[in-house]
Amino acid sequence: MIEHLSDLGKKTIDNFKNFKNLPTIPKVVSEVNQMLRDHNSNIVQLTGIIGKDQGLTTKILAVANSPLYGLPRKVASLEFAIMLLGMREISNIVTALSLAQVAKSVEIDGFDFMDFWLHSMIVGSASKDIAIKLGYPEIAGDAFVGGMLHDIGIQLTASYFPNEFKEVISLTKSGNKKYYDAELDVLGVTHEDIGHFMISKWNLPSNLEEMVGYHHNPSKLKSKNIGLNIVYLADSMTRIFDVGNFIWDSSVEYGENILEKIDLINQAQLEKFVEEYYEVFLDTANSMKV
Predict the structure, then answer these.
(1) Cβ pair 190, 1 in contact under 8 A
(2) Of 48, 80, 101, which residue constitutes the final position of a domain?
(3) Most CB atoms within 10 A, among 54, 119, 177, 246?
(4) Residue 41 pLDDT exceeds 80
C-alpha cells in the first residue's frame, strides 16, 4: 500500500519503521501456535500456557460468553472454554486478543482505550458470527481476528505519534474534518496504512493484511476477500446502531457496493440482515465491558 502515499505519508511510514521498540508477536501467541503444531499437545498444557496471563484469561471468557459467540451455557473456566470451543478456536482468540493490546498504553484526551477495546471486541465477534450466518464458516476464525485487529493502526498511531494523534482528534471533534481526512492531512497516512504495515511486519496471512488495510474502503481491493467485506459490514453496524462505535466510524456507511461481495441480493435484504443484529449488539456490548 506504500506506493499510493504522498511524500508526507512515506516519511511517516519511514519514521514508524525506524522506531526501535515496535511491538513484536507476544510470547503467548508463539507458544500457543507452536503447541497446536504438536499433535501430542492437550487441553491441560494449553490451559497452563494461557492461564499464566489472568488478564488474557478474563478476556477470553468474556468473548466466549458474549451473545455473538452463541454458546448454550455460561463458561466459567478457561479449561471449559477450550473444551467447548476447541484448541484451534482458542488459538484464534488468543492471537486476536494478544495482538490487539501490543501497543503501549497511552493517555490522550479523546482516546479511551476501554471504548477502543469494546469496539474491537464487538467487530471481531460480529464478524465471526456474520461469516457463519452467510455460509462461510471456514473463514469465521480469520474474520474474528481481522475484526479484532481492524483498527490496530489507530492504537499504534496513538502510541507512536501521540502529538499528531491529538491533532487528528482535535480536527475531528471540531467538526472541521472527518477522521480519515484528518489523518491524511496530519500524517499523510491513515490507520489502515499503519495497521497494514504492522500486520505485514508480523508475517500474518495476506488476507488479514487486507482486512486491516482496506476495512474502510473494501472496493479499492481488486481481489475478492469475503472476510474483508464482512469486517466492513460489522464495523459499519457499530455506527448504524450507535453501539460500540467510535469517533473515526462516524462516516462509515454500508451500501449496494457491498451486496455482491457478501452474496446478499438487494439493499432491502441487507438492511433486514443488519436490523436483526441490533439487540444482539446491545447485549454483547454490555457483556464485554470487562
Answers:
(1) no
(2) 101
(3) 119
(4) yes
